[in-house]
Automatic annotation (TrEMBL), chain A:
InterPro entries: Ariadne, ARIH1-like_UBL, E3_UB_ligase_RBR, IBR_dom, Parkin-like_IBR, TRIAD_supradom, Znf_C3HC4_RING-type, Znf_RING. Residues 1-13 have a biased composition (Acidic residues). Keywords: Metal-binding, Repeat, Transferase, Ubl conjugation pathway, Zinc, Zinc-finger. SUPFAM superfamilies: RING/U-box (SSF57850). Residues 14-30 have a biased composition (Basic and acidic residues). This is RBR-type E3 ubiquitin transferase.
From TrEMBL, chain B:
PROSITE patterns: UBA, UBC_1, UBC_2. The keyword Transmembrane does not apply. It comes from Erythroxylum novogranatense. Residues 155-194 form the UBA domain. This is E2 ubiquitin-conjugating enzyme. It is an enzyme of class 2 (transferase).
Amino acid sequence: MEDYGDSDEECYYSDDRESLDGLDNEDSHFQRVTPKGPKVIRKESLLAAQREDLRRVMELLSLREHHARTLLIHYRWDVERLFAVLVEKGKSFLFTEAGVTIIESQDNDSQQTSCSTVRCDICIEDLSRDKATRMDCGHSFCNDCWTEHFIVKINEGQSKRIRCMAYKCNAICDEAVVRNLVSKRHPDLAEKFERFLLESYIEDNKMVKWCPSTPHCGNAIRVEEDQFCEVECSCGMQFCFSCLSETHSPCSCLMWELWSKKCRDESETVNWITVHTKPCPKCHKPVEKNGGCNLVSCVCGQAFCWLCGGATGRDHTWSRIAGHSCGRYKEDQEKKTERAKRDLYRYMHYHNRYKAHTDSFELESKLKKTIMRKVSISEEKESRLRDFSWVTNGLQRLFRSRRVLSYSYPFAFYMFGEELLEDGMTEVDREIKQSLFEDQQQQLESNVEKLSKFLGKPFEQYSDDKVMDIRMQVINLSVVTDSLCKKMYECIENDLLGSLQPGMHNIAPYKSKGIEKASELTTGWSSKTNATNMFLSSSGGTSKQERPSDSGSSDDSGCFALKRARKEDGGYFDLNLPAEVVDRS
Amino acid sequence: MIDFSRVQKELQECSRDIESSGIRVTPKSDNLGRLTGIIPGPTGTPYEGGTFCIDITLPDGYPFEPPKMQFATKVWHPNISSQSGAICLDILKDQWSPALTLKTALLSVQALLSAPQPDDPQDAVVAQQYIKEYQTFVGTARYWTETFAKVSSLGVEEKVQKLVEMGFPESLVRSTLEAVGGDENLALEKLCSG
């Protein structure tokens, strides 16, 4: 057991040792170039990022690049959908829809070349042939008019779809012509055009999104297949790819949105006021009863009855207020107050726990420094213990589990409450599921606390034997919390969210190694093999030959095992597959 | 900048076949940026016999940007505002092509007069009437044509004469008549009440 901590390569090599991944040194892992997983797209690599899609379309339909781009922009860079349309409706439909025209014969051209001048129908001038440009659709106009048209369209923000000038011609203009003509008159506008065209890959593509960092780092992130995931940009920003807010699994995006709004706004304060105060009948300020009998007096001097809220005189006995009687029971009012009270307590229960874990998370982040100092002290000591990677690994595990734990509370708040999922399940069903979930949550909670406790011990002052003991505890607890987290996610995906309407609530899959860092886009790899790779997605694990040579041997590691398993089962909604299926593959 | 040489050519072209198309375009001033288009009401429609004036303003980007057109003559039509004369026509917006001209655009407007599209209305009141009470619509449209689109609309002068003889000031009579759409009874009612 001594050596796995510092050689994570070996640890990752086979899937059956995945259970040990709580002990790996994850810092080194994701920086390696991997062919799968999220990618960082920088300004410089934007073109390279879309090459692959362009090439696939160009090769399959034997098209020129600008035609392929026009098609892809029209189909929002969804190559699969584009191919589906091609199969279902045919090539000509596909082309007409997107505004791609390819002239088969050159007859027109040869006829026209016979005379040396042409008339431009826009400016109504006769000019020599070399001053006019003929677009793919066959329409020819003079260069000045084309340029003017392009400039107007670019300024209108229509760079991505500049149509031919001819009336009712749907054809999209050749980007090379646009670039060429516009740059002669307005080089900066040509640049703008170029950028719009390139950024279409980000703007119009559901698999690519801008990093939400502020100030913006300039990067975009591309994911593979599953849009429900959490990623880390190379700028350090961690976010939920689906909703672009902070990472929040196992909460679904909708739950998280509601929760953060709830925490932000004052609706709960208002609830508290309803439960604990009554408005003064004179000045209408909320009055809290701070003891004494039911005759309350407001700061404004007005006395009123706490039971009914009605204004009264100031004389009273122990049993009744003079000239006032309100014994009549008002059920509606009572019920409303009761309900508001219950809702508030319920919210407070979940919020307190969510907050406690978030606070612990923050405190523990500070702990990192202290612990690292302890480690360096220990390493100085004359001891047979040399390897302290268990400390850092344990710490990482603590952070990740703590995160899961804190977000599990808002999840439970909505999952078992009435606010969001009123008709989701029956009362009995709800009770069973809630206790199942809470058991898991409590188990995780106690193990996380234990892990935190052991990591907080001043092990640098301990004897070797005692340190060995703590080490065993930390390693064990790391493995246990990891598998508990995994189980909780599975329970949520399969047993809880799985029974709801599909598609409404999706959560990012559990990543044992924490939030995936987006890797740099490698521009050198052969696109051919990658294309095959995509087509062969149903054939199980990736074979060695398909990997780029520079990516090291750790690609097949457990971190992608879950993801790949999903992919093999096909479809987007495999989030709801039973755990065994995912495990087996 | 507006391509004035093209506008000039368009005007020449337009005046050449004025006999066949009946469409006329004349500059309002010397700068060619503001023009007036004149189209005859299409035969077989409630607009028949009327002559409709359209204000044309050319944007700087003309002909790469569409000309702005608006009816100067009041007209009762689902796709034309009865208040402002604004026209709802695709080629004057996103379907404009630099290959179109003022003449072709005016021809399209003329075509719009013969074929209203109440599903895509500019004037909801007119469109409702067109759909629900077609005969009333035809009546109103014809009445508006008679009242506003006839070059020398004797009918209006007679009404003015009549009301002035009743003792109302002429300017007030004219504005009231216009406000109620030329109906002399309504105008009288309004004049008496206010």
